Amino acid sequence: MTAPLAILHDTFGFAAFRGVQEKVIDRVMAGRHTLAVMPTGAGKSLCYQVPALARTGTAIVISPLIALMHDQIRAAEGFGLRAAALTSADANREETIARLRAGELDLLYAAPERASGDGFQSLLARVPIALFAIDEAHCVSEWGHDFRPDYRLLRPLLDSRPKVPRLALTATADHHTRADILKQLGIPDDGLIVAGFDRPNIRYAISPRTNGPKQIAELIAAQPGPGIVYAPTRNAVEKLVEKLGARGRPVRAYHAGLDPDTRRRNQAAFVESEDMVIVATVAFGMGIDKPDVRFVAHAGIPKSIEAYYQETGRAGRDGDPAVAHLFWGASDFALARQRIGEVEDSRQAGERARLDALARLVETPGCRRAILLRHFGEDPPERCGNCDNCLSAPDVIDATELARKLLSAVYRTGQS
Ligand code: ADP
Ligand code: MG
User: Fold this and answer.
1) Within 10 Å of residue 177's Cβ, how many Cβ atoms?
2) So what's the ipTM on this one?
């Protein structure tokens, strides 16, 4: 059996584990159930890929979307891993099953609706399993922003192999969701491992929207380098492109209403560019690896703090200074409240809690980063020194106050 570090070097060609990867992998190697909460881009896949190679048997990976599975399989095969998916859409089902039975698969991906069926359990009956990886594990919780009832049905499969370690992975889990994942998947409380969520090079700013296009144009004028502007609707994207386009920087649109060719072309142009602004709906950004994005602007509120963190997190992946600026209006919240009224009853409490958390972030006179990090379960300092609130009014007031005290002290000293 090869040790995890040797696999990291030899198979993946990476010099060192990042952040909590080693901690997560050690626990899985010891056969213990684990929930890893790690931000997007932190390297969650590696946390199951390495034990898949280091432990006997195939890793069963539960993943919610077929498109996502195929991306993962391509990436894994790029590192020389043997990976396949069992989905209703797959033509080579028989071949995959044969490879699984012959012990020729390191990773087998399956969607929850398939994995939770009896057929899947009996298929695995005599197959050695290295671990169960449950990707996007927040889908198991009604508190999560992406509830998938089929995730709830995985438990009999997991329980049928009690000695096989379970590794649940997610980027986005608040306290409720985490507790729920642990309970639903039978992971002990001490199995929770949370990565650092802070992105210190991102400067957060949040302002009321007075004149959205003008405010965004000013932001763009002040920020050289590539940037993303998120707008709530296709229509809003088109309008912004029109208004911003006249100002000298290359500006392109990205939304689901454009034909796939134009979308691909605009995305490729953005990835290549050193000064382009892309105005997009939230459809843009998934799976895009552009490290030098210098700013992310929101022309309206995102869906939740998790979404905000994920979307702003596309800025400054290279570690150089970057800006995230959100412009919000009271109408954004009114509309969001109205939408919540239209969703299923069982989901309304969760959605409302998510909107309230976002409102607190928007309205706080305190540190934005502190609110964000506390949301993800961290215990940050009171002030970060790199958000609008830390950088503006309170400092000025503090300085004025300090000056006043100093002056009065000098004055008193002078008198005595
Ligand atoms: P996540 O699922 O957490 O968003 P991924 O698993 O897709 O992240 O990994 C993001 C990128 O980081 C991938 O390109 C991956 O190969 C790379 N990566 C992961 N771990 C390491 C590491 N220890 N050293 C260098 N690169 C890594
Ligand atoms: Mg992932």
Assistant:
1) 24
2) 0.98
